[in-house]
Design a protein that fits this description.
Elements lengths: L7 E4 L6 E2 L2 H14 L18 H8 L4 H11 L5 H21 L4 E2 L1 H12 L3 E4 L6 H5 L4 H8 L17 E2 L13 H10 L6 E5 L2 H9 L3 E5 L5 H6 L4 E3 L21
Parallel strand pairs: 1-4, 1-6, 4-5, 6-7, 7-8
Antiparallel strand pairs: 2-3
Helix pairs in contact: 1-4, 3-4
């Protein structure tokens, strides 16, 4: 089946497809530093275990490459010599997130897997576009064939198909000159799918991701998993939902992001 509407769907990964351990790794690794090696400068900062909230992660770090995220967090908490300390923080976070991923400390969002399958079935090509270099580690562990069978979904899913294998393009973890809210990552994804930006829509959970999609001339679908619907709407998302099951897949063929009607 082909469509005269949207031709490409570009998915962020962390927070959209997968509840990954990135946020926990950023929080816990900074706590280890502040309570350990960096204890001597802790009183010069605004950091506390209570102040590093999910909202801070979403607003300050989400969607940024590792080094940019580390620096942004340290600057936010007014850590002295932030630029010099960012490398140590980023390295500790990376070690922690790998351990958490290998231990299976993540889960796919069922609504996202249903949406990926429905979009593919509608003839729309799909791409994964995450700033994280770790995205493939968990995407390849998620089996779409088993999920579709368990959910009794009416889609033909090849045996052994993983979430990573379901994408027509995957540009996750590449080194781009500029991170979100710059649109480079999404423009690259659209180009690798073979479409103009306006033929694609982006699925994002972070305000910086919505900004990047709109800056690139793409439609933006915001998924508010952190009670942040207002933040996503404020960035001019074309549609904001709390579950991707709310999206009317049929209207994508008319180049519309809309809610399903009862």
């Amino acid at each position: 089946m082909t469509t005269s509407g949207f031709k490409g769907a570009i998915f962020d990964v962390d927070g959209v497809l997968v509840n990954s351990p990135h946020e926990r790794a950023w929080q816990d690794s900074l706590a280890e530093l502040m309570l350990g090696d960096w204890a001597g400068i802790r009183d010069q900062t605004t950091w506390s275990t209570e102040s590093f909230t999910p909202h801070v992660y979403q607003q300050v770090m989400s969607g940024k490459p590792r080094m940019s995220g580390a620096l942004a967090a340290l600057e936010y908490f007014k850590v002295p010599q932030a630029s010099q300390r960012a490398t140590e923080y980023a390295a500790r976070k990376q070690d922690m997130v790998i351990k958490l991923i290998n231990a299976g400390e993540f889960e796919a969002y069922p609504d996202a897997l249903r949406f990926v399958l429905a979009v593919r079935d509608a003839g729309i090509l799909v791409a994964a576009a995450s700033s994280s270099k770790n995205a493939g580690l968990f995407l390849r562990q998620i089996r779409l064939d088993k999920f579709a069978a368990q959910q009794s979904l009416p889609y033909e899913v090849p045996p052994g198909l993983t979430l990573l294998g379901s994408f027509d393009a995957d540009i996750s973890g590449r080194d781009f000159a500029q991170g979100k809210p710059h649109p480079e990552i999404f423009l690259t994804a659209a180009a690798e799918l073979g479409f103009e930006p306006e033929a694609c829509f982006v699925i994002e959970d972070a305000a910086s991701g919505i900004q990047a999609a709109k800056a690139g001339g793409m439609a933006a679908l915001g998924i508010a998993r952190a009670d942040d619907a207002a933040d996503l709407a404020a960035q001019n998302a074309d549609l904001v939902v709390t579950t991707l099951d709310e999206v009317d897949v049929a209207r994508l063929a008319r180049h519309r992001l809309a809610l399903r009607t009862p």
